[in-house]
Amino acid sequence: MKSTLTSTLTIAVAAVASLANGAAVQKASADNNSTNAVNATELVEQEIIAVDQVSRIETVANSAGNSSFVFDFLNAPEAAVVAGDAGNITTAVVSSFPALEGTGAAMFLFQLGPCGMVLPHSHPRASEFIVVTEGKISTQFLTETGSDVFSNTLKQYQSTIFPVGSLHVELNPTCEPAKFIGAFDNPDPGTFFVAPGFFSLEEQVVLTQLGGAVSGADLSSFKKAIPPAGVVAIEQCLKNCNITANAKRDILDMLPAK
Ligand SMILES: *[C@@H]1O[C@H](CO)[C@@H](O)[C@H](O)[C@H]1NC(C)=O
Ligand SMILES: *[C@@H]1O[C@H](CO)[C@@H](O)[C@H](O)[C@H]1NC(C)=O
Ligand SMILES: *[C@@H]1O[C@H](CO)[C@@H](O)[C@H](O)[C@H]1NC(C)=O
Ligand SMILES: *[C@@H]1O[C@H](CO)[C@@H](O)[C@H](O)[C@H]1NC(C)=O
Ligand SMILES: *[C@@H]1O[C@H](CO)[C@@H](O)[C@H](O)[C@H]1NC(C)=O
Ligand SMILES: *[C@@H]1O[C@H](CO)[C@@H](O)[C@H](O)[C@H]1NC(C)=O
Question: What region holds the Cupin type-1 domain (predicted)?
Answer without folding.
Answer: 71-220
